[in-house]
Amino acid sequence: MKTRLLILLVFSFGALSVFAQESGNRTYNRNAARPQFPTTGISYGNGELLIDALVLLNAPPDEFIAVFGAAQVAPTAVESNQKVNAQIERFLSDAIKLGVVRSDTFVDFITQNRVYSFSPPADGVIREIISGFETKKNIAIKYKDRALLEKLLAAASQASIFDLIKVDYVVNDMAKIRGRLFEEAVRVVKQKEETYVRSLGLVVKRNALVQETYGTYYPSELYQTYTAFESGTVDPYYGSGTGARVIRERKSSTSYLEPLDPSTFDAVLNPAPIEPMVQCTLYIKVSYGVAR
Questions:
Q1: CATH 2.30.30.100 holds for 63-170
Q2: Main-chain phi, psi angles of 76, to 5 degrees
Q3: I need a surface site. Which of 3, 57, 188, 280 has the fewest CB within 10 A?
Q4: So what's the pLDDT on residue 239?
């Protein structure tokens, strides 16, 4: 058998088992495109000068909301509901011992479905039959201490809850953040205006703010997933006529946080955070009249 090694690196861009940081299992199914931002600069046409600014603020979260998924199957709908309730109550009891306030928890009923299986063959026919019911509920828990998540995961596993669906980041005063962004964007525009006037000898008059666009990007939107491995190849002739099959091993994928590129922006407030944060952006464009 002739074999050669290939280096395979497969990327799947996309939210939060638990991935790095606090993404959660929603990373498996998300394929969101990376945010695209305009290239800033200066433009002129029809006697109008346009100066823009793009700024970024990395905002630490004030609170977190972790959402866990629980499910139980039983012969009847009533039994499946009772089983999942008991499972959730055990989890919440342990969470309260960790310092979680009961009012900071919420149980969300998701669905109750029939579960089907197949009957043994009879008269050469295999029939699908109802074998029970499955009840699914989500448990949302709000907390402030980032380190509490690890303890919540342990408590959930003790209750046989293994699905961390997502972790949401909460920023309480978004108006304050937008105010800081606007102040910084205006500063950048004025700095560019002064530079153009001083360097090029322009005489300009500020007319109007013609565009103001805010953006908010949560860590769960910025995770990327990849699978990296080395694998051999099998030449077509190998095993020919023998009925041999190739059985491939499972390749593990992993995820990592890819924050917004700071070089894209004219200014960055609270730069280079080591932990995931909420990334808030503002793009503004200002119109100027130019004296001839």
A1: no
A2: -125, 160
A3: 3
A4: 53
